[in-house]
Amino acid sequence: MFSWVRRIIKTRVHVSPRRFRVILMISILLMVGAMGFVWPHVKKVKMSYEYQFLVQEQQRLLKENQLLRAEKASLQSLDRIYTLAKKHTDLAPPKEGQMITVFLK
User: Fold this and answer.
1) Confidence at residue 82, expressed as pLDDT on a 0 to 100 scale
2) For residue 70, is pLDDT > 80?
3) CA–CA distance from 6 to each of 17, 27, 62, 82 (Å)?
């Protein structure tokens, strides 16, 4: 494995190679267990931030939708269309004799 680790262990701590492997495996298993315990909490916090962002985005889109609906209603106003037709296209109401009534059976 790592020769420098073995040297430090042999000089400072007297542990047989077999025990060293056991201690190393137990340490690795504890770290994996700790990661398994912490990971769902980290994921939960991340999802909470995403949820807050999506709620803010939804509120912004709802406000924009309301504004667009109000703008659409004002643009579709018959008074506005009538005024634009009179000003820009010189349209006028029909005179006597210009209207033809069609009766359907």
Assistant:
1) 84
2) yes
3) 9, 16, 64, 92
